[in-house]
Amino acid sequence: MTLLPKSMKARRRLMIFLIAAPILMAGVALALFAMKDQVVYFYTPAQAYEAKAEWHRTMRLGGLVKAGSVVKGPGGEVTFVVRDQKAEMTVRFKGDLPDLFREGQGVVCEGQRVSADVFEAKTVLAKHDETYMPKEVVKAIKEQGEWRPESAAKPDSKPFGEAK
């Protein structure tokens, strides 16, 4: 008794599958191995604590900037707290913050966790709400006479560094 199919056509298909399957698996394994260091996971502070995110490994931290937590230091270093509903994590960043960065707004920071509750960011991306509209678009709409101020950004939300 043989396990091979009786028809030649079925045997040919089986041989093609037996040759192609290891090649395909090797290709997938190589692709996953090459991507191993390129994958950047996204965590909220609570998820980072819960998953025990590795220290000194590049990751993204997202959440809201805690009101009153932004401290600008000498030399352009900025420290602020990113929080979610359950936890918060201190973020240190050196460089220019995006124009949309402000307290209470969402941010995504890319960098490394350097201690239990400190994240050192290399990049800070600020998220805006759905009412945000770029200045150029506002100007163009005003020029066309279609301006509806209720669709503009909230007047009480100023970017970080501007006087309220």
Automatic annotation (TrEMBL):
Gene Ontology BP annotations:
cytochrome complex assembly; protein-heme linkage
State if Heme is listed as a keyword. Answer: yes
Question: Gene that codes for this?
Answer: ccmE
Q: Where is this region: Disordered?
A: 143-164
Q: What is its main location?
A: membrane
Outline which residue ranges sit on the Cytoplasmic face: 1-13
List keywords of the entry alphabetically: Cell membrane, Cytochrome c-type biogenesis, Heme, Iron, Membrane, Metal-binding, Signal-anchor, Transmembrane, Transmembrane helix
- Positions contributing to heme binding: 128, 132
Family statement: Belongs to the CcmE/CycJ family.
Naming one, the record's GO cellular component terms include:
plasma membrane
Q: What is this protein called?
A: Cytochrome c-type biogenesis protein CcmE
Spell out the molecular function terms from Gene Ontology. Answer: heme binding; metal ion binding
Q: Please explain the role this protein plays, according to its UniProt record.
A: Heme chaperone required for the biogenesis of c-type cytochromes. Transiently binds heme delivered by CcmC and transfers the heme to apo-cytochromes in a process facilitated by CcmF and CcmH.
Task: Check the record and name the InterPro entries matching this protein.
Answer: CcmE, CcmE-like_sf, NA-bd_OB-fold
**Is DNA damage a UniProt keyword of this protein?**
no
Q: How is it placed in the membrane, per its record?
A: Single-pass type II membrane protein
Pfam families hit by this protein: CcmE
Membrane topology (Extracellular): 35-164
Q: Where in the cell is it found?
A: Cell membrane; Membrane
